[in-house]
Amino acid sequence: MWALELAPTSSLGSGISSVGGRERERFSLAGGELVIYDCEKPADARWAAWVGPWHIVHGMFYAPLWESADIVETFTRVTWTDTPEGMIADPGGRFEMSTSLYTQTIAGVGTLQVESRQKSTDQIPKWRGHRSRAGEIWRMDGADSSENEPLLMVTDSAVVTLSPWNAPQPGRPGIGARAAGLAPTEAAADFLTRVRRLDWRS
Q1: Looking at residue 77, what is its pLDDT?
Q2: Would the pLDDT of 158 be above 80?
Q3: CA atoms within 13 A on the CB side of 99
């Protein structure tokens, strides 16, 4: 199993700032640019991003599989096509992508994770949740306080987990964007109730 995250190119500065990155290498790769940083947080890691015109694909790498060749091998396991509407990952028959998931940081809200409903039915509560325009919403247990409880939203084709935190604004590393007076879970709930539609297509 391996994991990479997607984000808009405006998040590149925030990603570098979050790891205390010091640039190690930068070169062209598969129609985009691959940048590799030595991290301060954590100190035993490297952070790398494949940068397209509109989006980035990024992830953490640890020894011994953190050399440039290892990072290139990971980023070229699928073919990335960057479009204004989003990033397309094509495994070309080499990998099974049906169990993949998508994560996205939402400024001022938190981290959004989207999975196929078909592959995640065991996560769906047996009781009725709050009905929203896109689906049903539930609070999840396991947070350190009620103000940081993750939320679960289920649509016709997707299972969505939203972990609340005051994520920084794009292009402004470390500066949160949450509306004044809203607790983390309240901000997350407000965001989910305003989602009009969310589909998973494989």
Answers
A1: 86
A2: yes
A3: 5
d(C-alpha 139, C-alpha 183), whole Å: 14
Instruction: Identify whether the C-beta of residue 56 lies closer than 8 Å to the C-beta of residue 8.
Output: yes
Name the token pair of 121.
Answer: 């039915």
Mean pLDDT for 39-62 is 91
Contact 109/162 with Cβ under 8 angstroms?
Answer: yes
Contact 109, 191 (CB under 8 A): yes
> What backbone torsions phi and psi does residue 186 show, to the nearest 5 degrees?
-65, -45
Q: Would you call 103 exposed, middle or buried from its count of C-beta atoms within 10 A (0-12, 13-18, 19+)?
A: middle
Separation between Cα atoms, residue 117 and residue 134, nearest integer Å: 14
Please state which of the ranges 25-39, 45-59, 66-80, 113-127 shows the lowest mean pLDDT.
113-127
Please report, as a single letter, which amino acid is at residue 147: E
Half-sphere exposure of 156 (CA within 13 A, CB side): 7
pLDDT band at 98 (very low <50, low <70, confident <90, very high): low
What does the pLDDT read at residue 180? 54
* Rounded Cα–Cα distance for residues 52 and 100 (Å): 21
Element (H, E) at 57: strand 55-62
% of the chain at pLDDT higher than 70: 85
Tokens of 190: 């407000």
161 vs 180: CA distance, rounded Å: 23
